[in-house]
Every structure is written in C-alpha cells, then in structure tokens.
Amino acid sequence: MAHEILIVEDDDGIRRFLRISLRSEGYRVSEARTGAVALSLFEANLPSLVLLDLGLPDEDGMDVLAAIRKRSKVPIIVVTARSTDFQKVRALDAGADDYVVKPFSIAELLARIRVALRHNAPELVDAGVRQHYRIGGLEVDCDAHSVLLDGSPVHLTPYEFRLLEVMMQNPGKALTHRFIQERVWSHPTSDGFRTLRVIMASLRRKLKDSPAAPRFIATEVGVGYRFIGRDCEGARDTGTR
Ligand code: CA
Asked: Model-level pTM?
C-alpha cells in the first residue's frame, strides 16, 4: 500500500501545495493545522512519514517533534522558515531525520522523503553476510576495513574509516557534528569539533573529494555533513564473501 504522509502545516497555501505534490507522487496524505490535531492524527493513522512545520498556532513544532519521537521512530522531516544553524541542529539532535528550509524546492523535498522512507525500511539481517557498501565509485568492506576508490585501494586510519562508515550508513541524511562525533569516538572530547574537521579534511583528501564540488561528502554549513554518493538511491549493498 502507498505510504501515508502526515503534513503538519498551518499555512493553507503551503499545505495545499504539499498535498497536491505528494498525491501526484502516489503518496496518501493526512493533514493537520495544529500540533494537537497532528498528535491525534498521528495516533490514529500511524503515518509512514511526518512533514512538520515548526511554527504552529497552538504549540511549538519542537514539542510536537518530541512528543512523536517519544512514541515512534517514524521519519520526521522538518519544513521550516527557521533557518538558523542553531535551529536546524536543534531539530536534528531532537530526532528529526532531516530539514528543508522555506521556500523549498519540491524536487528536493521529494528526494529527502525518498531517502527518509528508505532509511526506515527494515534492514536485512543475516549473520553470515558481511557489510559491504558500494556508492558512486566507492567500495567499502566494513569487515576487512578495505576501501576502493574507482578500483584503487585507499588507505585510511581507523578514525577516518569509522567516519566514512558512519557517513555511508546514513546516505542522503544531514548529520550533525554531534551525531557524527558520538558515533566515531566512544568518548568525544571538548575538542571534538576541531578534531572532526581535521579528520574530515584528511578523509576528503584521500577520497579526492572537494568541499567546493563534493562527490561523496557535502558540508551542511553550521550543521554537519551529508553523504551524497551519486548512486545514493539503493546505496546499501550486502554481499556474501
Ligand atoms: Ca507555520
């Protein structure tokens, strides 16, 4: 059955535009203008994804985000006019899967929705299968800790490897500095942000990736990083030995 998307948005024009766009892509849609209606619709319909405006008439969208997160791991994409880095980071760290800033491009929003829905798909579990990622010329074998770039081996330090692994495990998603640090180091230091930047710079150099025209890892200014491998759709690949 088609995925149902809950649109939480008090602006009638934007809500109508989202409804029409999503329906034409084959999604089912439910709509809420307030936080209270959003929560009751969420309970009633258990949608596959939530598009959440942060500026709602009755309560702060951040509270709606927290309330939904308490109940469910459903993908939540924040659609907001609040565009400061602090607000994006706050929403992502509170459990949003991604954010889109108004005015947004519908093509970009639809791409983010596809990524978020795929991320929520059940993962293959097979103890005999090794973790292997192949994205846009990059091949990573997580068990052997080996990396091939366009067929040639790349030698990474353990931290660089772990950083690449964390990025590849979350293709297409904006990851905050904090999210990444917590997964790369078991004990992030106060200097973690600087250290992350240094390791990221060195990883990008080894992958011949350029921050100005990224092939694999894009900078989300003031927020963190996003893995953007060209074949990102269907990125996960599990192969047998
Ligand atoms: Ca609003």
From this structure: 0.77
